[in-house]
Design a protein that fits this description.
heterodimer, A: mainly alpha, two-stranded antiparallel ribbon, 2% strand, globular, B: mainly alpha, 2 strands, transmembrane transporter activity (chain A), BCAA_transport_permease (chain A), cell membrane (chain A), membrane (chain A)
Chain lengths: 308, 388
């Protein structure tokens, strides 16, 4: 598989594929972070997570169209407005879903899985009815177009860099919220010992609702970022959902660091192999490796030790 | 492993004519007499196709309803069963005489299109019908055994198991679609013609296959009923409700789980093979994540605890799917989504639960009055529904 490439060329290939992998990594991380909060912290399987992401993507699409036709002056910065709107839209829908559905199912994780799958089907059809079955893309502002040439053979697209920067920023914010704020402390307390948290005066129902909303909101932001590197269709979310679940499970469901590490491993492995093997073989090999490792180590890479 | 006591091995308690057996007889009458008389061959073939999914639903009743193991990868086994059958039929359809226009005669057409020069080694044994029939059951059961062994021995269960089976479904689909030359790719294995010289595309053949399918289904239904009524079935329920207590009582819980998972896989595979025979092709669109989870809803609508319910649920959901997608294709996904949510939130025991709640009490009163109260003491509610 390495024949016919010189060493320098191989280096460039690995660098470029590594960068493509980093973009995939960013999308994985953004999606998986929301899921890690919902699944890892709350133990809820949200199969509609992909659709929350796509909702964010469509909000970005609408926002880009709206701003380019009514407020073109704002266009270079529309992305930040879109991201905030996507967060609010997905988060609000998430809280509504938690209130209407999830809160009755906390004790039945398998049933949550089925119910949220139903929700994902409904959302998909809503997207299809409203936006059409065709995939849509957004117009990027000028400053995000083009690429930076690092060396003669290595070029790095700017939108990819931006998405990566965004991912890092969001990860830091989530870390601060979950581990450094009083609210995050409440969330972790409820997840570790619900009864005791309730006993010391934390409103557990409220914490549940906001946590679920936060997870879905992050999915919305992920969707917003996703529009910069790919186009959005009604079923795009479904393509990523199983991968994302594997990322979260592989990393160890309760550990945010684990989620990031496993997203990195999986995306890098996949994109590096993709260049040398066909895309489908690369994907099969990656998924298979992850599944086999999970069979040998079911608790995932990083384990948070909690006394139950 | 099964530790079935002799007294229950097709003993008196099994042959007692009770609610379940009467229900199966009623279903058999519906499938073998009423439907063939009432429907034309096109619709009957369609019902036959739906019934192949009922095999999967039966497996899920045992695996998910009884033992509490939700597998979201039953499509894998359905697909493998179907592909094993399709490989045999395809080889028969691509005899050197029938394919002499190809650059390499005697291999399936899609291999020729993908520039394959010889039949791959794993296709060779599928020249034999008996091997293929064994493979239909053995290959999925073996795969389920390996997966089950790896997961259940390490006490992986619940949602983790569901997600990993789902990942397997994704892997297998990508593999089949990607390896076009060996598997027929996204189109699957199509253009199947004869089974040992018997043309399966004629109306007569479809009618015969329908009856074979119905008979197999009733047979599997009885087999499942037997498993449930055996001591094994009780242990499955026990480990669903309190796994630790079963383990502390000295049972190796993993073995029971592996068994029921393999059993469900084999049932699905039989369904898949019958699907290929009746519909005449097999493609990866019956393997992946979406069809696999759809199969769970058939079982859930019928009632995850009821074997008969699963068959009726499958028929009903598929019939609704056909009707809705024929006239209002947009509504189907809404209806499907609503079904998923409704079945979980409003009626978790499905059709069977509704029957037990609303119809069975009236029936019981009716029969009790007619036979002068003699039947009142007979246990009409089967233990599994009472247990929930």
């Amino acid at each position: 598989m390495f024949e016919g490439y010189s060493l320098a060329e191989l280096g460039s290939i690995f660098a470029m594929q590594g960068f493509a992998g980093l973009i995939l990594f960013s999308v994985f991380v953004l999606m998986a972070l929301g899921l890690a909060i919902i699944f890892g912290q709350m133990g809820v399987i949200n199969m509609a997570h992909g659709e929350f992401m796509i909702l964010g993507a469509y909000v970005t699409y609408l926002c880009s169209n709206f701003i380019s036709s009514y407020a073109p002056a704002l266009f270079p910065a529309y992305f930040f407005i879109a991201m905030a709107l996507a967060f609010v839209a997905s988060g609000a829908l998430g809280m509504l879903v938690e209130w209407g559905m999830i809160r009755f199912l906390y004790r039945r994780p398998l049933d949550t899985l089925l119910a949220t799958w139903g929700l994902s089907l409904i959302l998909q059809q809503v997207f299809r009815s409203v936006f059409g079955a065709r995939e849509v893309g957004v117009v990027l502002p000028d400053w995000l177009m083009g690429s930076v040439a690092v060396t003669d053979t290595i070029e790095v697209p700017i939108n990819g860099l931006f998405v990566m920067g965004l991912t890092i920023a969001i990860t830091v914010v989530i870390y601060a919220v979950m581990f450094r704020s009083r609210w995050g402390q409440g969330v972790r307390a409820v997840m570790q010992n619900r009864v005791m948290a309730g006993a010391v005066g934390i409103n557990t129902e409220k914490v549940d609702r906001y946590t679920f909303g936060l997870g879905c909101g992050i999915a919305g932001v992920a969707g917003s970022a996703f529009t910069m590197v790919g186009s959005t269709g009604p079923t795009s979310g479904q393509l990523y959902i199983v991968d994302t679940f594997l990322v979260v499970v592989f990393g160890g469901a309760q550990s945010l660091i684990g989620t990031i590490a496993s997203a990195f491993t999986i995306s890098q492995a996949q994109s590096t192999m993709e260049f040398f093997l066909s895309g489908s073989t690369a994907k099969v090999l990656t998924l298979l490796t992850v599944v086999v490792i999970l069979m040998l180590r079911p608790q995932g890479l990083f384990v948070l030790k909690v006394r139950r | 492993m099964t530790r079935t006591p002799q007294s229950n091995l097709f003993g008196r308690s099994f042959w007692r004519i009770d609610g379940d057996i009467a229900g199966i007889l009623l279903l058999a009458a519906l499938l073998v007499i009423v439907l063939p008389l009432g429907l034309d061959i096109f619709r009957l073939n369609m019902v036959g196709k739906y019934l192949t999914y009922a095999f999967v639903a039966l497996g899920l009743v045992l695996c998910w309803g009884s033992a509490g193991i939700l597998s979201l990868g039953q499509g894998i086994f359905f697909g493998i069963g179907g592909y094993c059958m399709a490989m045999f039929l395809k080889l028969e359809a691509s005899s050197p005489e029938a394919t002499k226009i190809q650059s390499t005669p005697g291999i399936p057409d899609f291999m020729d299109w993908n520039q394959l020069k010889a039949l791959p080694w794993f296709w060779e044994p599928f020249h034999s019908l008996s091997f293929s029939i064994v493979a239909v059951v053995a290959v999925p059961a073996l795969l389920a055994f390996i997966v089950g062994l790896a997961m259940f021995k390490r006490r992986v269960g619940g949602v983790y198991f569901a997600i990993i089976t789902q990942a397997f479904a994704a892997i297998l689909t990508i593999l089949i679609v990607g390896q076009q030359g060996y598997t027929g790719g996204i189109n699957g294995i199509t253009d199947l013609r004869t089974l040992k010289g018997w043309d399966i595309r004629t109306d007569d053949a479809k009618l015969v296959l329908y009856f074979v399918n119905a008979a197999l289904l009733i047979g599997c239904l009885l087999l499942c009923l037997y498993v449930r009524r055996s001591k094994l079935g009780r242990i499955l329920v026990a480990l669903r409700d309190k796994e630790d207590r079963v383990r502390f009582s000295g049972y190796d819980v993993a073995n029971f789980k592996i068994f029921v998972f393999c059993f469900a896989a084999a049932l699905s595979a039989v369904g898949g093979a019958m699907f290929t025979l009746q519909v005449g092709f097999m493609s990866p669109s019956f393997v992946g994540i979406v069809p696999s989870i759809e199969m769970v809803i058939y079982c859930a609508v019928g009632g995850r605890l009821s074997l008969l319910g699963a068959v009726y649920g499958t028929l009903l959901v598929n019939w609704a799917k056909t009707m809705l997608s024929e006239s209002f294709p947009e509504l189907w996904l809404f209806a499907m989504g609503a079904l998923f949510i409704g079945v979980v939130m409003v009626f978790p025991n499905g059709l069977a639960g509704l029957y037990q709640q609303f119809i069975a009490p009236h029936l019981r009163r009716l029969t009790a009055r007619r036979s002068g109260g003699a039947a009142a003491g007979a246990p009409i509610i089967p233990p599994h529904t009472a247990a929930d």
